[in-house]
């Protein structure tokens, strides 16, 4: 008998879940080992709700956001179809992810971003992975319109989440949550921008329930920034504005699918001020040790607001997706902290102890 010394290594979402993904037979696997992210129990949020609150930490994906789940499938299928170049519109994370996966696949990545609104970390990722970055005088919605037109008229494949193959990869996050908890949570909370993610989670939860791998489907509650809240008001925002740049989107591409997810699950959309979002971001970092980018804290901010408004989560299991890593946008995180290093001492133990207020 051969002795096995290998421990199980996560193989990325295509290899882990291929039979459950609607991707063409024979699709190759272009992967960076995405998915398999931690589900971390939040002690303070569990205490605050009287329930069990779990954070799905998507910043732990290879390029630091959940976008990698959909990008492994989108780029793999683009390779199958013989694409040579790929294009996306992005508030930052899609381009970072696309550039990395395109690099692996030997495809040329072309990125359209709104001028001046991309966090430095995300821009650095796209550039390092060899993307051609084109800044558009306009917002994300303009970039998406251009990307679609480029893909329609030129030999480049579109990998935004309007490409249904993206959602196939992204739905695996719902699978992982159920696999880990043993059933679907009662509630799933998350930020919404272009609305691909909420649509993908709902696909995944429905599929698992249909397969009998979960006994129920969660109520989907999604949160937007006040300055970019079309799903809350029912109207597109021609000039979306928020410090949570990853959800600074005025006319979500998956609008209809997102409304369907909310309606079918008995869920809803609510909006938050930037202040609520940034406060939740800080609390999450200080209390749970989880540093996320601003947009990623919207689900947590939403939970806190729901509690203030009188909703009860007592006794419930709640999953919250925190969508991207805090290191992507340190500038916004550090606003309001003043001087970073405000205490300077000589290299002396007593001086350091005195400055730290010890003893
Ligand atoms: C893309 C993104 C979102 C929004 O997801 P949608 O699928 O566009 O609704 C939220 N947070 C982060 C960090 C993102 O990168």
UniProtKB/TrEMBL annotation:
Q: Which GO terms describe its biological process?
A: isoleucine biosynthetic process; L-serine catabolic process; L-threonine catabolic process; threonine biosynthetic process
List the SUPFAM superfamilies: Tryptophan synthase beta subunit-like PLP-dependent enzymes
**What's the catalysed reaction?**
O-phospho-L-homoserine + H2O = L-threonine + phosphate
Q: Which UniProt keywords apply?
A: Amino-acid biosynthesis, Lyase, Pyridoxal phosphate, Threonine biosynthesis
Q: Which domain of life is it from?
A: Bacteria
Example of a GO MF term: pyridoxal phosphate binding
Q: What is its EC number?
A: 4.2.3.1
* Pathway this chain belongs to: Amino-acid biosynthesis; L-threonine biosynthesis; L-threonine from L-aspartate: step 5/5
Question: Which CDD domains does the UniProt record give?
Answer: Thr-synth_1 (cd01563)
List of residues binding pyridoxal 5'-phosphate: 93, 193-197, 323
Q: Where is the Tryptophan synthase beta chain-like PALP domain?
A: 30-324
Family according to the record? Belongs to the threonine synthase family.
Cofactor(s) listed in the protein's UniProt record:
pyridoxal 5'-phosphate
Pfam families named among the record's database cross-references: PALP
Q: Provide the function of this protein.
A: Catalyzes the gamma-elimination of phosphate from L-phosphohomoserine and the beta-addition of water to produce L-threonine.
The answer to whether UniProt assigns keyword Protease to this entry is no
Statement: the UniProt record of this protein carries the keyword Lyase: yes
Which residues does this entry mark as bearing N6-(pyridoxal phosphate)lysine?
67
In Swiss-Prot or TrEMBL terms, this protein is called Threonine synthase
* UniProt organism field: Nocardioides guangzhouensis
């Amino acid at each position: 008998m051969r002795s096995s010394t290998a421990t199980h290594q996560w193989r990325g979402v295509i290899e882990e879940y291929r039979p459950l993904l609607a991707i063409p037979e024979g699709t190759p696997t272009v992967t960076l080992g995405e998915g398999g992210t931690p589900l971390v129990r939040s002690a303070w949020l569990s205490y605050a709700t009287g329930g069990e609150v779990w954070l799905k930490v998507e910043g732990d994906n290879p390029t630091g956001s959940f976008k990698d789940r959909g990008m492994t499938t989108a780029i793999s299928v683009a390779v199958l179809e013989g694409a040579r170049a790929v294009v996306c519109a992005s508030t930052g994370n899609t381009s970072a992810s696309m550039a990395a996966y395109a690099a692996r696949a030997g495809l040329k990545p072309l990125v359209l971003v709104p001028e001046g609104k991309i966090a430095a970390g995300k821009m650095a990722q796209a550039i390092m992975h060899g993307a051609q970055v084109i800044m558009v005088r306009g917002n994300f919605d303009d970039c998406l319109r251009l990307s679609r037109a480029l893909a329609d008229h030129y030999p480049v494949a579109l990998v935004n989440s309007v490409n249904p193959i993206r959602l196939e990869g992204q739905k695996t996050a719902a699978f992982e949550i159920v696999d880990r908890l043993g059933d679907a949570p009662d509630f799933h909370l998350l930020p919404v921008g272009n609305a691909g993610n909420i649509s993908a989670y709902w696909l995944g939860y429905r599929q698992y329930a249909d397969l009998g791998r979960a006994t129920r489907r969660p109520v989907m509650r999604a949160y937007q920034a006040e300055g970019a809240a079309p799903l809350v008001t029912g109207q597109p925002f021609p000039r979306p504005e928020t410090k949570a740049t990853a959800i600074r989107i005025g006319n979500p591409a998956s609008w209809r699918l997102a409304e369907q997810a909310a309606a079918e699950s008995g869920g809803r959309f609510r909006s938050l001020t930037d202040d609520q979002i940034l406060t939740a971001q800080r609390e999450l970092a200080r209390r749970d040790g989880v540093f996320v980018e601003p947009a990623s804290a919207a689900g947590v901010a939403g939970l806190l607001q729901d509690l203030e408004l009188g909703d009860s989560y007592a006794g419930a299991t709640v999953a919250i997706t925190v969508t991207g890593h805090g290191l992507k946008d340190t500038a916004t995180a550090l606003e309001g902290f003043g001087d970073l290093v405000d205490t300077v001492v000589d290299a002396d133990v007593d001086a350091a102890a005195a400055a730290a207020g010890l003893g």
